[in-house]
Specification:
Length: about 400
């Protein structure tokens, strides 16, 4: 049969030389490309990411639960609007571009998807896919007026295609393996077993970037920071004393509430970037305002290196947000910058603001330029099927996907 060779990209784990040399390069690339980048989960089944949106692209190493929300609502260009290493469960809302799911996809009324690549099984009810659909799992279950404008491909042996008579518009073509059980409406095109299209490959590697991200956060924490910081009623006042890149060390009592950040420059100082290392495991931000002074939010990175719980409420958080160990609970407001954390809960909106301030030379044990530069080889491309799926299934047995890398190709 000629069909399987046509989708050989789906049954290979493709390893390419790394384009990224250090964890800082990985962090720089991710923060400049992804609006939301989670090493754990997005929402829960009981409390999904609901009635809000990420303006830019999103990547989730674990499971994603979405209800009535848009992912990549601004249709930021690129190979993938969303990439989920585990299962995606989404009701209504939209995905603005290509979607890659390593596990099962359970969709209901989701719009704007371009191409959909699913490593597990697909269940779709009344949604619209503008391009092609590729399913590598045991079943594709389509009902309730699902519309597929492109083709539909099932690659797994002994799989099944189940579609109700109101399964929506006829795909341009259906491609299956010889052993697929097809239960399709009579008006659909006859399935074929060869000449199927090649599935697009995911643009980032789902296995291992958490290590780079965590190492980058730890290294930033070790940078020597010039501190000129005061606090008034929960407002943090920071005076920058260095032209160029500034590093600030900020220690916050566990459980304390921060109600604002106010940044000013010392006389004659022209800052070009700012890294704020915030120490504390349990932190709260409530209301208030962020005044970044002469800096733009694209030039500011907050590094919560050891935080495990961060609560945000009723505020606009300005700048890139790095907290690789934390569960972030954001009940109201928005983040204007890249959000990189472990788990994200709540309806807080994530606005697309790329991070474009160069980081210092990567240092494993000290400040800018010091220590040992560590090169980290990274797979540049990974297919979500075949050998890759075996790896996914192994990782899914481990809590919160430890060791999974999500790195820019």
């Amino acid at each position: 049969m000629n069909f399987l060779p046509k989708i050989a990209v789906l049954v290979s784990l493709l390893i390419a030389p790394s384009a990224l040399a250090t964890p800082y390069d990985t962090l720089q690339s991710i923060a400049g490309t992804y609006n939301m980048f989670l090493l754990g989960n997005l929402g829960t089944a009981a409390a999904p990411f609901q009635y809000t949106d990420t303006q830019g692209k999103g990547a989730v190493a674990g499971n994603a639960y979405v209800n009535g929300s848009a992912v990549n609502g601004n249709n930021v260009s690129g190979a993938a609007a969303v990439l989920v290493g585990g299962n995606l469960t989404q009701t209504y809302g939209s995905i603005g571009g290509n979607a890659f799911v390593g596990g099962d996809a359970n969709l209901n009324g989701v719009g704007s998807i371009q191409n959909l690549v699913v490593g597990g099984s697909l269940t779709d009810n009344s949604g619209t896919i503008n391009g092609n659909v590729f399913v590598g799992g045991a079943a594709a279950n389509l009902s309730g007026g699902v519309t597929i404008d492109g083709s539909l491909s099932l690659s797994r042996a002994n799989s099944s295609l189940n579609a109700s008579t109101n399964g929506g518009s006829t795909p341009s073509a259906i491609y299956v393996t010889a052993s697929t059980q097809v239960h399709d409406p009579s008006y659909w095109n006859a399935p074929q077993t060869s000449s199927g299209p090649t599935a697009p490959t995911a643009p980032i590697d789902v296995f291992g970037s958490s290590t780079d991200i965590t190492n980058a956060s730890n290294s930033l924490t070790e940078l020597s920071g010039a501190t000129n910081v005061s606090s008034t009623g929960g407002v943090i006042n920071i005076t920058l004393t260095t032209s160029g890149l500034n590093v600030i060390d900020l220690s916050v009592t566990n459980g304390a509430t921060i109600t604002g950040i106010n940044i000013t420059n010392a006389n004659g100082v022209v800052p070009t970037g700012l890294i704020i290392n915030v120490a504390g495991t349990n932190l709260n931000f409530y209301g208030g305002s962020f005044n970044l002074g002469s800096l733009a939010n694209t030039q500011v990175l907050f590094n919560f290196g050891n935080a495990t719980t961060i609560s945000l409420q009723n505020l606009a958080f300005e700048g890139a947000f790095l907290a690789p160990l934390a569960t972030v609970n954001f009940s109201s407001g928005h983040i204007d910058g890249a959000l990189i954390t472990n788990n994200y809960m709540g309806p807080g909106q994530v606005n697309y603001v790329g991070f474009n301030d160069p980081l210092p030379s990567y240092a494993a044990t000290g400040g800018p330029g010091g220590g040992t530069v560590i090169a980290t080889p990274e797979p540049a491309t990974i297919a979500l099927f075949g050998t890759g799926l075996i790896a996914v299934s192994l990782f899914k047995r481990r809590h919160l996907f430890p060791g999974i890398r999500l790195s820019q190709a």
